[in-house]
Amino acid sequence: xxxxxxxxxxxxxxxxxxxxxxxxxxxxxxxxxxxxxxxxxxxxxxxxxxxxxxxxxxxxxxxxxxxxxxxxxxxxxxxxxxxxxxxxxxxxxxxxxxxxxxxxxxxxxxxxxxxxxxxxxxxxxxxxxxxxxxxxxxxxxxxxxxxxxxxxxxxxxxxxxxxxxxxxxxxxxxxxxxxxxxxxxxxxxxxxxxxxxxxxxxxxxxxxxxx
Length: 211
Hints:
Elements: E1 30-36, E2 39-45, H1 57-65, E3 73-78, H2 84-92, E4 96-101, H3 105-118, E5 123-126, E6 137-142, H4 150-160, E7 164-175, H5 180-189, E8 193-200, E9 203-209
Parallel strand pairs: 3-4, 3-6, 4-5, 6-7
Antiparallel strand pairs: 1-2, 7-9, 8-9
């Protein structure tokens, strides 16, 4: 799931990352499936987008184990990929508006198409700068792009976490061996109340509350 601005890559020509604004790899669409309780969706994915071979396990852990979304208000899916989290939240909270935010243009196109086919008109997909500046979120859900690097990840979180409404929470799913505990410790140094809600299949779900 993809938010930070593209940074110079050490990889060879033609290499594409899911956090690139315009993936260099040639498009090759495929269908993936999201099974979540009574929710059974066929989604379109593509190369150059996170989870292109199937809905990521971390995403599934987040959707299964994090608290249900608020029934109304604005909710952020930070790093939406092709929209699995945003669409699942939209189905659970049809009166809420779900903002699916990513820097990957291919991912956003897929999110819009998937939201349309899923009948979730309450999903709005866009680039970070397309979200109205004064908007606050009742909740944030994210499978954040930890592989982009620690500094860009911290920059990303410090951009969006302050936009939580008073009393709102962010729910982040991070692999333990990719730094979930150190991320929780760092967030605490920034003044956030951080609680580990769940550990499952190597993932931690962190609840982050504004100070």
